[in-house]
Amino acid sequence: MTSLHDNGTRIAIGRLTLLFCIFFLIASGLGYPVLNRFDPRQTPGLSDVRTYAALVTGGPSLAGEDMQYRRFRVLVPWIAKPFYALARGRVASWDPVMFGLLVADSLLVAGTAVFIVIMGSRKLGSSTAGLVGALLYLVNFAVPNLRLVGLVDAGEGFFLLALLWSLSEFELWGLPVIAVLGALTKESFVPFSMVLTSAWWFSTRRDGNANRNDDRNRERKQFSLDAVWIVASWAAGLAAMMGVQWWITGAYASPIQFGLALRRGGGSHFAVSLHDRNLWYIFLWLLPTAIPNLKRFPRSWLIPVGATCAMALVLDACFGGAPEAGSALGRALFSVAGPVLSLSSALFLLRITS
């Protein structure tokens, strides 16, 4: 029996590895234009890429907002560094910096797609829905136009979905590790993770239905242990965020000080976000096709994702940039809800084509 189980596990890992490789090649193809057809660093609305490119090359830091907070988003540039070094002088007309960033982003997008397949198969009982959901995720406007152009949102989306997977599988030991990596990817991951994990904890607590005293005692112990892992992940994420800031600047800043220094909008930026075309390109078809089947998803998914989307709206209203800078709300909402909505859209398409 053990050998059969081990053999089945190896087969499953092999299939997921093959899927990952295919998704990586698809993502690389979707992001190909950044190699020699246009330069995101010179494109309005994608100016953040200049900072991440400088982090990859180790060049001089940029001024202004880039010096203020984007230089702390180090994980994706760190992943891109070895691929940049490998490509420099060896890829003909391709831009080696953008090649490194494209490989890093493609790895994270492919990982997100694999998680979608796993969660669709495990929680919805349909590997077909998981596969279609992953493909819908890949072809969404946000992926080739915002995930694969040298930004770090691919990393934030991957670690948010890894967080939801860890919670849904009750593998809470992984939360602190995910929190550290997510915090090194983008600072907004920290409040997102706090809201997502706390909402999950409350939603699962309400779902408890034990009747006997021993069952209730066991549940209380389990909820307490879950809370310890969740709070530990918050502490790990905050420590990672403060640690990378101290490592780069040599100065300590509390999360509250860092957040207050970034505040700009005061609520006025929300109107700018609603007029942003990227927001509508992402969700114009995704929401109508996803909403009809959301009732099939567990509350332990829907409540945390919904609460985190609300947090994204609050952060955008308070910390959004100037009107001429456009909005990142669509990117944030897709990072939070894109995988679940893609799975729900897959159920809709499978139903109308069956």
Characterize this entry briefly.
With 354 residues, the protein is mostly helical. Helix content is 74%, strand content 0%.
Overview of this protein structure:
By secondary structure, the protein is mostly helical. It has one domain. It is 74% helix and 0% strand. It contains 18 helices and no strands. It is globular, with a radius of gyration of 21 Å.
Helix-strand layout with pairing:
Layout: H1 2-30, H2 33-36, H3 48-57, H4 65-68, H5 75-87, H6 96-123, H7 127-139, H8 142-147, H9 153-168, H10 175-185, H11 189-206, H12 213-249, H13 255-262, H14 269-274, H15 277-283, H16 286-290, H17 299-319, H18 329-353
Helix pairs in contact: 1-6, 3-5, 3-6, 5-6, 6-7, 6-9, 7-18, 9-10, 9-11, 9-18, 10-12, 11-12, 11-17, 15-18, 17-18
Largest sheet: number of strands, sense, barrel closure: none
- The count of domains is 1
Total helical segments: 18
The radius of gyration computed from the alpha-carbon positions, rounded to a whole number of angstroms, is 21 Å
Order of helices and strands: HHHHHHHHHHHHHHHHHH
Q: State the distance separating the first and last CA atoms.
A: 37 Å
Average pLDDT works out at 87
Helix content: over 70%
The low-confidence runs, each spanning 5 or more residues with pLDDT under 50, are: 209-213
Q: Estimate the strand proportion.
A: under 5%
* DSSP, total strands: 0
Helix and strand composition category: mainly alpha
Q: Name the shape in a single word.
A: globular
